[in-house]
Amino acid sequence: MHIIVCVKQVPDTTDVRINPETGTLVREGVPSILNPYDAHACEEAVRLKERYGGTVTAISMGPPQAAEALRDCIALGADRAVLISDRAFAGADTWATSYALSRAIRRAEREWGPAQVILCGKQAIDGDTAQVGPGIARRLQLPQITYAYRILEVDKAAGRVVAERRLEKGIETVEAPLPCLLTCVEQINEPRYASLPNLIRAIRYQCIVWGAADVEADPNQCGLKGSPTAVARVFAPPEREPGDIIEGADVAEKVSGLLDRIQTRIREAATAPG
Ligand SMILES: Cc1cc2nc3c(=O)[nH]c(=O)nc-3n(C[C@H](O)[C@H](O)[C@H](O)COP(=O)(O)OP(=O)(O)OC[C@H]3O[C@@H](n4cnc5c(N)ncnc54)[C@H](O)[C@@H]3O)c2cc1C
Fold it and tell me: Which of 150, 153, 242, 271 is the most buried (most CB within 10 A)?
């Protein structure tokens, strides 16, 4: 079975800041990581390989440094990693990103056989749109199972996958024909610690790099040219004043303190000029 997993390198969100003048993300000096949901997707891909046999191809679109995220996939047990990187892809919105990735998936299938399962994370922690997985499925005319919580069975002979989806208030079991794209939630598994041989392989691994021409992508559908989304403005919400904490020995004392505070505020408002 050929399993493909799409992974994105993202800035570590605990460090993300927005330049108030330009309205863009400050990326300088911000560490990049494998999108956490994609680590779960990659782990699931490797588990499927261990269960049913086959190979795992990890694919990422990004600048050359995104190869680091792909090496993390090799460390987890992916067999090969492909970086699609080209100036033509720069400035892609989710529409153009899913187009480029769908072209790369088709090329990967020509190289290593048709994929039965394509896995994505639920969402990327920087863009947060959760659109790319469904976008790829649409481009490839595949069924999709979003918010996959558990993959119960992949039956290649019967051509079906059965999975549980996580809903807001429950779990839904669904079946879809193969090939199928699934987007994974974090509860699907616990990514493993890389084994020493896989770690060494990851350090030495040279990613396969494809440009737009290698995946037979139409340049007009790639990058900024192929992106209908226009970002009107990006801004950080103003920081909120910290709230008051009313101390007291017990609830009665705290409530009494709160009433005092409210009365004081009302008096101040009533006597304020204007
Ligand atoms: C007008 C415009 C211009 C932009 N220009 C740039 C730019 O120049 N550089 C830039 O980095 N971003 C740019 N972006 C952001 C870019 O569109 C998104 O980062 C990208 O489309 C992925 O969307 P997302 O982060 O919401 O991913 P989601 O849809 O939330 O991701 C869901 C899943 O899809 C897969 N996935 C998502 N992105 C990738 C990827 N790149 N490779 C492999 N798998 C992936 C992963 O499995 C991920 O878990 C731009 C956005 C807009 C609107």
Answer: 150
